[in-house]
Amino acid sequence: MKLSVFLGVAVLLVTLTLPLGATAEPQTAQDFFNRAKAKIKEGDMMDGAIADYSKAIELDPKYTDALIWRGLAKQSKGDWDGAITDYSKALELDPKSFAIYQSRGVAKQSKGDLDGAIADLSKVIELDSKSAIAYSNRGIAKQQKADSDGAIDDFTKAIELDPKVARYYFCRGLVKKSKNDLAGADADFSQAEKLGQSK
Predict the structure, then answer these.
(1) Could you give phi then psi for residue 110, rounded to 5 degrees?
(2) What is the pTM of this model?
Protein backbone atom coordinates (compact mmCIF):
# COMPACT_ATOMS: atom_id res chain seq x y z
CA MET A 1 0.00 0.00 0.00
CA LYS A 2 1.19 3.51 -0.77
CA LEU A 3 1.45 5.33 2.54
CA SER A 4 3.41 8.43 1.56
CA VAL A 5 3.81 10.74 -1.37
CA PHE A 6 6.83 12.87 -2.16
CA LEU A 7 5.63 16.18 -3.52
CA GLY A 8 9.07 17.40 -4.62
CA VAL A 9 9.29 20.66 -6.47
CA ALA A 10 5.62 21.49 -5.92
CA VAL A 11 6.13 21.61 -2.16
CA LEU A 12 9.27 23.69 -2.58
CA LEU A 13 7.48 26.22 -4.76
CA VAL A 14 4.56 26.51 -2.32
CA THR A 15 6.94 26.91 0.59
CA LEU A 16 8.87 29.66 -1.15
CA THR A 17 5.70 31.68 -1.70
CA LEU A 18 4.82 31.72 2.02
CA PRO A 19 5.83 34.54 4.33
CA LEU A 20 8.69 33.68 6.68
CA GLY A 21 7.42 31.52 9.54
CA ALA A 22 4.06 30.81 7.88
CA THR A 23 2.69 27.30 7.44
CA ALA A 24 0.46 26.26 4.56
CA GLU A 25 -2.91 24.97 5.70
CA PRO A 26 -3.78 21.62 4.15
CA GLN A 27 -6.31 21.76 1.34
CA THR A 28 -6.59 18.24 -0.05
CA ALA A 29 -7.12 14.80 1.43
CA GLN A 30 -3.47 14.04 0.70
CA ASP A 31 -2.42 17.22 2.53
CA PHE A 32 -4.33 16.24 5.66
CA PHE A 33 -2.98 12.69 5.43
CA ASN A 34 0.59 13.96 5.21
CA ARG A 35 0.08 16.34 8.13
CA ALA A 36 -1.36 13.51 10.23
CA LYS A 37 1.75 11.42 9.56
CA ALA A 38 3.93 14.39 10.49
CA LYS A 39 2.03 14.73 13.77
CA ILE A 40 2.68 11.06 14.50
CA LYS A 41 6.40 11.59 13.92
CA GLU A 42 6.21 14.46 16.40
CA GLY A 43 4.62 12.15 18.97
CA ASP A 44 0.99 13.21 18.50
CA MET A 45 -0.39 9.75 17.75
CA MET A 46 -3.76 10.45 19.25
CA ASP A 47 -6.29 13.21 18.73
CA GLY A 48 -4.32 15.52 16.44
CA ALA A 49 -3.46 12.82 13.92
CA ILE A 50 -6.92 11.26 14.13
CA ALA A 51 -8.53 14.63 13.39
CA ASP A 52 -6.43 15.05 10.26
CA TYR A 53 -7.06 11.50 9.07
CA SER A 54 -10.78 12.15 9.60
CA LYS A 55 -10.59 15.29 7.48
CA ALA A 56 -8.77 13.37 4.75
CA ILE A 57 -11.52 10.72 4.80
CA GLU A 58 -14.22 13.42 4.75
CA LEU A 59 -12.65 14.83 1.59
CA ASP A 60 -12.06 11.39 0.06
CA PRO A 61 -14.25 8.64 1.60
CA LYS A 62 -12.39 6.00 -0.43
CA TYR A 63 -8.99 6.95 0.95
CA THR A 64 -8.00 3.47 2.13
CA ASP A 65 -4.65 4.45 3.62
CA ALA A 66 -6.25 7.17 5.72
CA LEU A 67 -8.79 4.66 7.07
CA ILE A 68 -6.02 2.21 7.93
CA TRP A 69 -3.84 4.78 9.65
CA ARG A 70 -6.78 6.26 11.55
CA GLY A 71 -7.60 2.73 12.67
CA LEU A 72 -4.03 2.26 13.87
CA ALA A 73 -4.16 5.56 15.75
CA LYS A 74 -7.45 4.61 17.40
CA GLN A 75 -6.05 1.19 18.25
CA SER A 76 -3.04 2.82 19.91
CA LYS A 77 -5.35 4.65 22.31
CA GLY A 78 -7.46 1.58 23.08
CA ASP A 79 -10.46 2.50 20.93
CA TRP A 80 -10.97 -1.03 19.69
CA ASP A 81 -14.46 -0.45 18.27
CA GLY A 82 -13.34 2.64 16.37
CA ALA A 83 -10.32 0.82 14.98
CA ILE A 84 -12.39 -2.19 13.93
CA THR A 85 -14.88 0.08 12.17
CA ASP A 86 -12.11 1.80 10.23
CA TYR A 87 -10.46 -1.49 9.26
CA SER A 88 -13.82 -2.87 8.14
CA LYS A 89 -14.40 0.15 5.91
CA ALA A 90 -10.89 -0.22 4.50
CA LEU A 91 -11.57 -3.89 3.75
CA GLU A 92 -14.65 -2.92 1.77
CA LEU A 93 -12.29 -0.95 -0.47
CA ASP A 94 -9.43 -3.46 -0.43
CA PRO A 95 -10.89 -6.89 0.42
CA LYS A 96 -7.70 -8.83 -0.35
CA SER A 97 -5.41 -6.93 2.01
CA PHE A 98 -4.06 -9.43 4.51
CA ALA A 99 -2.43 -6.55 6.44
CA ILE A 100 -5.83 -5.02 7.19
CA TYR A 101 -7.25 -8.38 8.27
CA GLN A 102 -4.20 -8.76 10.52
CA SER A 103 -4.77 -5.38 12.15
CA ARG A 104 -8.50 -5.97 12.58
CA GLY A 105 -7.86 -9.42 14.00
CA VAL A 106 -5.49 -8.02 16.62
CA ALA A 107 -8.00 -5.29 17.51
CA LYS A 108 -10.76 -7.88 17.91
CA GLN A 109 -8.45 -10.00 20.05
CA SER A 110 -7.67 -7.01 22.26
CA LYS A 111 -11.39 -6.33 22.59
CA GLY A 112 -12.03 -9.94 23.62
CA ASP A 113 -13.80 -11.02 20.43
CA LEU A 114 -11.73 -14.19 20.09
CA ASP A 115 -13.92 -15.85 17.48
CA GLY A 116 -13.78 -12.73 15.34
CA ALA A 117 -10.02 -12.52 15.81
CA ILE A 118 -9.52 -16.15 14.79
CA ALA A 119 -11.70 -15.63 11.70
CA ASP A 120 -9.70 -12.57 10.60
CA LEU A 121 -6.34 -14.20 11.30
CA SER A 122 -7.46 -17.29 9.39
CA LYS A 123 -8.24 -14.97 6.47
CA VAL A 124 -4.71 -13.57 6.70
CA ILE A 125 -3.34 -17.11 6.46
CA GLU A 126 -5.62 -17.83 3.50
CA LEU A 127 -4.25 -14.76 1.71
CA ASP A 128 -0.64 -15.18 2.88
CA SER A 129 0.19 -18.71 3.98
CA LYS A 130 3.75 -17.64 4.89
CA SER A 131 2.67 -15.18 7.60
CA ALA A 132 4.28 -16.52 10.77
CA ILE A 133 2.91 -13.63 12.83
CA ALA A 134 -0.64 -14.51 11.76
CA TYR A 135 -0.17 -18.08 12.95
CA SER A 136 1.30 -16.80 16.21
CA ASN A 137 -1.50 -14.30 16.82
CA ARG A 138 -4.11 -16.93 16.01
CA GLY A 139 -2.35 -19.30 18.37
CA ILE A 140 -2.64 -16.73 21.16
CA ALA A 141 -6.36 -16.32 20.47
CA LYS A 142 -6.84 -20.10 20.49
CA GLN A 143 -4.92 -20.30 23.75
CA GLN A 144 -7.26 -17.70 25.24
CA LYS A 145 -10.18 -19.87 24.13
CA ALA A 146 -8.59 -22.86 25.89
CA ASP A 147 -7.95 -24.60 22.55
CA SER A 148 -4.52 -25.81 23.64
CA ASP A 149 -3.97 -28.26 20.80
CA GLY A 150 -4.97 -25.70 18.19
CA ALA A 151 -2.68 -23.13 19.80
CA ILE A 152 0.29 -25.52 19.79
CA ASP A 153 -0.34 -26.33 16.12
CA ASP A 154 -0.33 -22.63 15.24
CA PHE A 155 2.81 -21.83 17.25
CA THR A 156 4.53 -24.83 15.67
CA LYS A 157 3.64 -23.55 12.20
CA ALA A 158 4.91 -20.08 13.13
CA ILE A 159 8.20 -21.65 14.23
CA GLU A 160 8.47 -23.61 10.97
CA LEU A 161 8.03 -20.38 9.01
CA ASP A 162 10.31 -18.23 11.19
CA PRO A 163 12.42 -20.34 13.59
CA LYS A 164 14.45 -17.42 14.95
CA VAL A 165 11.62 -15.68 16.83
CA ALA A 166 11.93 -16.41 20.54
CA ARG A 167 8.35 -15.44 21.34
CA TYR A 168 6.91 -18.29 19.29
CA TYR A 169 8.81 -20.88 21.33
CA PHE A 170 7.95 -19.10 24.57
CA CYS A 171 4.23 -19.02 23.77
CA ARG A 172 4.23 -22.66 22.76
CA GLY A 173 6.08 -23.49 25.95
CA LEU A 174 3.40 -21.79 28.02
CA VAL A 175 0.69 -23.87 26.37
CA LYS A 176 2.66 -27.09 26.81
CA LYS A 177 3.16 -26.22 30.48
CA SER A 178 -0.59 -25.73 30.88
CA LYS A 179 -1.03 -29.25 29.48
CA ASN A 180 1.55 -30.61 31.97
CA ASP A 181 3.97 -31.38 29.15
CA LEU A 182 6.82 -30.11 31.30
CA ALA A 183 9.61 -31.62 29.22
CA GLY A 184 8.22 -30.06 26.05
CA ALA A 185 7.72 -26.75 27.83
CA ASP A 186 11.28 -26.73 29.17
CA ALA A 187 12.65 -27.46 25.69
CA ASP A 188 10.71 -24.52 24.24
CA PHE A 189 11.68 -22.18 27.08
CA SER A 190 15.30 -23.19 26.63
CA GLN A 191 15.17 -22.42 22.91
CA ALA A 192 13.43 -19.11 23.57
CA GLU A 193 16.17 -18.20 26.05
CA LYS A 194 18.86 -19.04 23.49
CA LEU A 195 17.12 -16.62 21.11
CA GLY A 196 17.02 -13.87 23.72
CA GLN A 197 13.85 -14.33 25.78
CA SER A 198 13.74 -15.62 29.35
CA LYS A 199 10.86 -17.06 31.35
Answers:
(1) -65, -35
(2) 0.80
